[in-house]
Design brief:
mainly alpha; 3 domains; two-stranded antiparallel sheet; 12 helices; about 60% helix; extended; DUF6589 domain-containing protein; DUF6589
Amino acid sequence: IPGDVKNGGNDARYAWLQKNVEEIFRRFTVMYNVEIKENAKVEDNPFKMKLYFCSKCENTTKKPYKTKNGRDSHEVAKHQYDRNAMESTNEPTEEEEKETINHKLSYQKALFTYNLLLRSINDAIKEGDGERLFEHYRVAVLYFKCYGRSKYAYTVLKSFFRIKMEPSAALSLIWERFINKHGMKGYNISMDLHMEHLNNYLKELLRDLRGNVNRENAERVSKSLKNLKSIVEKFENESKIKQQISSKNKAKTLKDV
């Protein structure tokens, strides 16, 4: 960053950022190119676990280890062979000397990219932009696959399949995923989260029934949930009880950086 920009005002900083933001993203983020191929090859075992074997045991008695530390501990205890010490004494090859990887920069790029992905997903939900949300889900599938979250990956791929193969359901899957309770710009929330709020409110009403909880009363309360909630909100407005809007309660994230 130039010195005159650092010492300048907010307008100068904003102008410099707008001018160089594309170059910043190109240098300090990981670029993804996610394409869904129609005739993609499916692996027989996509979640194959990597195993580590002892280099001193015979082929008939080789035992697989899930981690490197387990394999190294076995070699030290059974064969008095310290793999780490032997590797540290070996001189680096010409290829290793030529290879210069900045691990700190790679970590920061991955962290910055992951942070931007999460913020973009939250922003797409707030703005009710279902098309942009599914573009981010294409990248999120890579994270689900990498960390073994197969159920999340299956749910997203199932949504992609329905959008591709069911045109009648594509509109509802993409755009009818949000609800705006306050009627203000940027205050959309996901429909699933709204249902969780209603379920929590229903549980509070059922707890108030105490010993009178039964199937008949539970159905009666659940059917009148919308009217009860509107009555409570009307009473709070008339009593000038301010409702807490979650988007205004922003957590301080400076300590996390």
